[in-house]
Amino acid sequence: MNFDFEWTALLALIWRATWQAFVLAGIILCLTSTLHRWISPKWRALLWAIPLARLVLLMIPASGLSLFYLLNFESQNPTPAVAISFSGTGDIGLIPTLDSLQPNHRISRTETAQEYSVSQTSITRSEESRTNAPILVSRLLTYLWLTGSCIVLCRWIGSRIILARIIKNSEQLQDAGLLKLIEAIQKRNQHWFPVRCFVTNDPIGPSSCGFWRPTILLPLNLWSDFAEEDRQTIVIHELEHIHRQDVLLMLISRIAITVHWFNPLVYLISNRMRREIELAVDSATVTNFDEQARHDYGELLIRLAQQTQGPVAALPMAGKRSALRVRINQLTSPIQDSRSKSALAMGLLLILFVTGLSDVAQTQEKSSPTPATASPEKETVPDNKKQNQYFISGTVQDTQTGKPVTNAEIQILVASEPDPDKRVLKGTTNEAGRYRIEVPLGNVQLWFPTLKPGYWLMPEESMQALVTTPEKPIVNHDLQAQTGAVWNVHWKGKLNQQQRQQLGVQNKDQPVRLLASVQEVADDAKRAAWLKGEPVSFQKANATSMNYLDEEGRGQLTEVGTSGKYILTLVNMSAELIVAPGFDNSQVVALRRLPDSNTTQMMDKEGRKATIKNGTATINNGVPLLIFVPKASKPVGNQKLVGRVVDAEGKPLTEVRVGVVSGTQGGGSGDTGVSTKSALDGSFSLDFPIYDYGNQAADKLQFSVVLTQKGYAGMDSRSIAVSKNFVPIDFKTLTLNRGYSLPIRVLDEQGKPLPGAIVEPGNSYALRRQIVRTSTDGRAILKDLPSGVIRASVRWGTKIKWINLVISNNESENREVTIHLKEFSSATTTQAEKAKPLTVGQIAPTWEIAEWSDGRTRKLSDYRGQVVVLDFWGLSCSGCVTSIPAQKRLEKKFAKQGVVFLGIHTADGEMSQINKLKQSEQWTIPTGIDRGTSILDSVTGEKYGVQGYPALIVINTDGKITFRSDVEPSKNRETYMRELAEASGVKWPPGENASEAEMIQMMNQMQYTLLSREIERVLKMK
């Protein structure tokens, strides 16, 4: 269909939505008429919602499955409007239609002038007026449409206001029978939100409304004009509306009418859908009714139809009188639903949803020349780049010669990717040393690129954080490769099944990529500990190079750094390489096995030496080959892990993911990648083979399990050590509590959203699985969190922040948390030397507080003459949070005696989260945030010499410190704790199988006893 004028973009979209909805409505009318006895009303209502949804969604995604490939009522090549440019050259510019705005449509000014050569003198006033006429008509239509939409919207808002007033002036339902009925049906149908029911004096019929707060409105005359059975039927009818969420379908209808108020089609479709909704509810209401009860229900509808209907914003039970005949006819000949009929209806619904709510994909360019008016593309954006694509690209060059480094494997870590196989993206440099890797929007990280032998990267380049943005979709990151001596190596070992699985190999025929690495470790003690299999930590990253070995274990390694002291990791073993300065590994003249050791010494022609530990060497033409024969790992046992998973009510949970974490006592731990699912009774069982690797004793191993399930807060179990005889480890009954969600928004210092920021909870292995990436507006939702306090890291390139988030068990309190990121400064993380604690008897110094939770200002001198208890704490301190019940008891006990309780939070606190915790715990003690930037430079904490958290300090009426909990007691600590436990009435030491809840209760009681004793002692001295 063509018009003599050009539509504006909005009107064009409205027209396209209109004719496509007309086509859909025609198809649905034919289907529902032909298959009337096969498609029940509940499915017919959803079918009629599809054309309404098309009217609401002015823009829909393109798809090759679109129905409208077959039907199109728009011109394929609309004639572009011509705007004449009165420049000296007489060039003509084209105003293209929306469909012609393709990125590669570029026509030079000279080409356009040649194709559309028009002399300035040929332009007449009549032609100019014809050019302006379409614009005036288009504007007029737009203003008329906008005016009508505003009127319809105002009427709808007015009806909502009327409805709100009716509800406000109504009384809550007091009928015990109906209340019991509502409660029973709510429980049976598992409604999302509790249903409210009001009785009103207004002359309206029974109605229902609301999604978040579903409400039933009943007129008062129901108790005078209708029997109790009728009232129950009415309530059942309205509850069925609420259960079906019909208010959402009506909302779609209302939006469609607001946008297409001028279109009779939208009213016809809305009325048809409304009728099918009522038919569906009638059918569900009378499902179990006998013939007489159905007859009575029909009479009830007729009686209600004679009364005044409810407000526009509600769903009246009687509906429209025009549809009453159809509803009553259905009661006499109901449609019996079945699986086959439901399958047919669902199939039709799915087909129409996919084909009807997708548009024709624009795959071909217009035949007529229609150049885009968009600005030219940036040089960094390739012509074949699609929209919403982001790339990391760059070159790898020899830092000394500037020559390209080819065949370098560049790896990009996408930390938020849930699929382990897609978490690391890879690309290889070409002959020019260039690489290009497609990445998601936002934060990614360069992840230990593997260069060819002879090259390595500085530590800061191996894990560089990178960020793409909509404004900068392609980030260029060049790498400067350092050079180092190359060593030939041969690893002669075999992998057991467990090691193959850890390398991602699932079957015997799958090839294995054997990885070897060199790390510079200058510290002799740390190298020795590493070789013994003991845990080793480093303050900063080591210089590292990595290379792959072939299937026979042969390959090359590259020296890194300057110290000449290295740890070699070859697949499943470690070795030590010490190289003297200037040693030439291409001119080795002698080898010597050092006595009583597993070390081989090499000497070059200048007499310089190098040694290899845990390996041997051979020489071929002066070039050594380092040979490593790892000790064969043999199975020493099979550890069975068993347990049972239940919810908070003790009901078994099935399909819970149970992951396995292994570690060593006093050392580190790691996720093994092994997992299973809980059975129907909640039980789980898996076998974990134990191997002897030589440097790791089996009796030091320990295991824990990680439980995750959608809708529940994930948890890590406690670690249990392996016994000598590999007795099955029974984790007993593990309880998963309800999980909560917390919306997050990440902004920069100026308040600009940061898309693709990484938000990662870090309290446990289970919580780390809830890592999320923010959307284009900087928003994300952390899901399945436990109530309490979690610590999360937020990263966007070089902007990093650690934040403590309070998760309330009241979902309504978990409102969006805004996090502002700024450039990360390593100075704030440098461990400072602890200040010496102020001793008992010293004057308590003044505090320096950034802000108080109640907004007031305070000085310590304000409380002279009163006993003051200072609680130095932080959200990141789990013991601080779990001790809140003891603090509340102490305040309640001593508040009437003039004792002042104040909290001082570490300097990294967020007042919004502190107040949220205080509200959740009903903790009224005022809390101030210490001055500073982190827990390490909290000013007041340093003044008092706080040694750890929580630290409770009691100050007497003279302003002197009389007690502090963060210093060692004067007597033996074990004796001290035993005496305190005895005074508190708790058992000490606690039992081996004491639960976490029991331990918290025990420590709270002991803290309460200790502080009570000290405060009472100070009060007696007044």
From TrEMBL:
Residues 363-387 are annotated as: Disordered. SUPFAM superfamilies: Carboxypeptidase regulatory domain-like (SSF49464), Thioredoxin-like (SSF52833). InterPro entries: AhpC/TSA, Beta-lactam_resp_regulator, CarboxyPept-like_regulatory, Peptidase_M56, Thioredoxin-like_sf, Thioredoxin_domain. The keyword Transmembrane applies. Keywords: Membrane, Transmembrane, Transmembrane helix. Residues 363-373 have a biased composition (Polar residues). Residues 838-985 form the Thioredoxin domain. The chain crosses the membrane at residues 12-33, 45-71, 140-158. The keyword Membrane applies. GO terms for molecular function: antioxidant activity; oxidoreductase activity. Residues 376-386 have a biased composition (Basic and acidic residues). This is Regulatory protein BlaR1.
